[in-house]
Amino acid sequence: MYRTRIFRALDPLNGMDQDSYRNQVITFEDTKPSAGAQKTQIYPIEKAIPRNSVQKTKTPCSDVGSTQPCPGSGIPMKRTCETIINQAITSTARNTHRHLVRYQFSSEFAVRSECLYIDPILHPDWNENFGVLFSHKVKGENMARVWDKLKLEREEEALEWLTGVDWTAEDPTHLSKQWSRLPRRQKETLWPPIALWLLLNSPRAALAFLLATDILPSPPFSMVAKCFLYLDAFHYEELTRDERSKQYYHEALHTCLDPEKWPVLKAYERGIRLFLKRGTPEDVNEALSTIINRRIHISFETATYLMDLFTKQRDIPRALSSLNLITDIRDYPQYLSDLRFQYRCCKLLTLDYVIEGNDERHFRILPEILKIGVPLNQPMLNIIYRNALKQNAPASVPYVLHEMGESGIPPDSYTYISLLDDAVSRRDLQHLDVIIREISSQETLRKNPFITSKMLHVFYSLDRVNPDEGWGDTDVFGRMLKIYSAAHDIQPLVDLGVVRADEFTLEEHEKSTNSPPSSHSLVIMISAFLRIQSVRQINNMFDRFLYLRDQGHESFGPLAESDYIFNVFLQEFAQRRSGRLKNCVRVLDTMLQPLPPTAILRSQSNRQIKQVKPTVQTWTILLTAFVRNRHPNAVDKIRVMMQEQGLKFNEVTWNVAVAGFSTMQMVDETANAVNTMMKEGWAPDDYTFNSMQWIHERDRLLSLVDNKASIGGRTQCGLADDEGSEGPVEIERHDESCESEGYD
Questions:
Q1: What is d(CA 404, CA 378) in angstroms, rounded to the nearest whole number?
Q2: Which residues are listed as membrane-spanning (predicted)?
Q3: Is 38 part of a structural domain of the chain?
Q4: What is the pLDDT of residue 507?
């Protein structure tokens, strides 16, 4: 009977919950409208409830030294609040096997003394009722029927209070004032049914109610946190539909779940993690400080959640502090071998760096992980090994290798990729050759697609790694072909004409055990082959590629859906003098043409191949070709064509333009390109400054360039002697005699 009356009496309130919220959202900073303002019927969530709108007047229970009886809670008047709270804390500590030092006990006492419930610290039926509410919401059951399943008391009083409050009052503190007038015992019995009913029927009103009742004595953290869990899980989008309402929700959550309200014992950690999830970086910092300073007992899940957050923020000191919280957990060593935890340690180790002290170089993060006893697995050892090679910490290398041997962990693909990177970075061709021979001697490594791709890339880059001692292009391609054929099927290269079938034995050619090549491996092999071919041969191979694409070739059809292969052909044409512009434009036109109906992938249910459109990188290479042929007008024309496609110049494209104008001594155009580049948000780099050095009238150039304060010093400091940064597109001065001979 009571429940029916509640639904009928508050039915208009439900309507306002859905309709009136759409047009007005008022944040914490809003105040009561001034005199003469038009009164609008609004719902309480839209009004500001200042954080100190109703002063949290301390009751006798709030004073540690109080000897007055505690009203409510069904406790005999002769027992004092202090005695009750002390006994409850002692009992909880004993039951949870916790030992509290004095300041922890004081912190727990302070939290409990401000709580609406004393012993127990929450309403006895709350957890069961909330569990029913949440589970039935997940199942999507009729919420009116859920109400009948709850264990509730004083429903009629809850009805009277809900219907007696003016939910449309202009005063943002009205709700708090009405609540503060109730006797403590009445608050204890009314808070649960009111909160549950509002969660079921009016989420925005529930948020307002949680804020309004955040006055002393306040509901316990666990009860309030569960309400926010419900709102966050089922109504977050509704409650944060615009920026102002989102700010209101987050400030409400911060106010009601403030770390100062967290108990030392049996803190409701889902509520803590919700605070961390929705909090700002400053909130997360505050939470960690509170946990550490008050030594709040938290679980492994919460400690690692904190560790994750600080790792994402790249805050190493706080991530390590969160890691050390694990050691306060009972039987914590059992968690250290958990794969999820070790994965988190891997992510943290990727941030590791070397510090120097006592004439030694050692890592910042690794010793902290080892100190708490985390067992090192292969991914962690690989990251440590890579860090040691990358950051020049050789003392750690023997340790890693020793640990691998002691643990029976052989080097894997990641280890060898790290070794390859190290050899390349040190330009150590002898060591590189040793590593490659070792990889080639092990079939599992030799056929590993990641290692194969890495080795192909290393060989392809040898000219840049060590141009004086590197092998010639033909030698490089031959070595790459051996690596490729050991891991991948050679048939795609035969189909394209990169190699002839008679170059391989019948047994090698008919082998079907090797996997199809990855797109990266296939394209890099094509690129290595093209750079030792003439323009005519490159054109023939481009025609062959287009034919295979149009026939839906299983290896070359998918390549047409990426700009990678087209950029390779475009780059090779751009580097040749003969037919440069004609061939480059042909590649671009091909990318803009629709594919024939035959261009389907039969192994993918006859899926139509989607021809990729020119990308910024494609246009940049095309611009390089025009600049090399001394066509400065192409800069503006290509820029307009890119804009029509929805693309803009990036940093590399602008550097190509600046380099082109500079080599042709076009001072005004060079200055205009630099100025436009900066206006579009691209800061000039060393490559830009080096290009500007080619201008003979340097003083005139500087007078035309904006932001001379930041550029003038750079252009007068001998940057012409620097190497500059290496971009993905090679730009040279226009000197016909310097261009490659013998290609044509």
A1: 8
A2: none
A3: no
A4: 54
Q: CA 189 to CA 155: how far, in whole Å?
A: 9
**C-alpha distance from residue 651 to each of 614, 680, 713 (Å):** 17, 10, 21
The DSSP call for residue 685 is -
Return the higher-pLDDT residue of 357 and 572: 572
d(CA 668, CA 691): 14
For residue 348, what pLDDT is reported?
93
Domains in the chain: how many in total?
4
Separation CA 296–CA 307 (nearest Å): 16
Domain ranges, residue 91:
60-113
Do 503 and 433 fall within a single domain? yes
For residues 569 and 530, give the distance between their C-alpha atoms in angstroms, rounded to a whole number: 8
The answer on 368 and 351 residing in a single domain is yes
Q: Report the length, in residues, of the chain.
A: 744
- With CA atoms as reference, report the closest residue to 85 among 109, 111, 117: 109
pLDDT confidence of 476, banded at 50, 70, 90?
confident
Share of the chain above pLDDT 90, in %: 34
The pTM score is 0.61
Q: Which 3-state string (H, E, C) describes 713-743?
A: HHHCCCHHHCCCCCCCCCCCCCCHHHCCCCC
Residue whose token pair is 């009052």: 169
Residues 488 and 399 placed together within one structural domain of the fold? no
Q: How confident is the model at residue 714 (pLDDT cuts 50, 70, 90)?
A: low
91: Cβ contacts below 8 Å, ≥ 6 apart: none
Residue 245 has pLDDT above 60, yes or no: yes
Distance between alpha carbon 649 and the CA centroid of its chain, in Å? Answer: 27
Please indicate, yes or no, if residue 478 is contained in any of the structural domains: yes
Residue 694 in any domain: the answer is yes
> What span, in angstroms and rounded, lies between the C-alpha atoms of 476 and 269?
59
If pLDDT is split at 50, 70 and 90, which confidence band does 68 have?
Answer: very low
pLDDT, position 152: 74
Q: Which residues are within 8 A (CB) of 146 and not within 5 positions of it... i.e. 6 or more apart?
A: 132, 133, 136, 137, 200
The Cα–Cα gap between 561 and 591 comes to: 10
Is residue 395 situated within a structural domain?
yes
The residue type of 727 is: G
Per-residue pLDDT, averaged over 169-176, amounts to 75
Q: Residue 599 and residue 589: Cα distance in Å, rounded?
A: 17
Which residue, chain included where needed, has tokens 């041997």?
405
- Averaged pLDDT score across all residues of the chain: 79
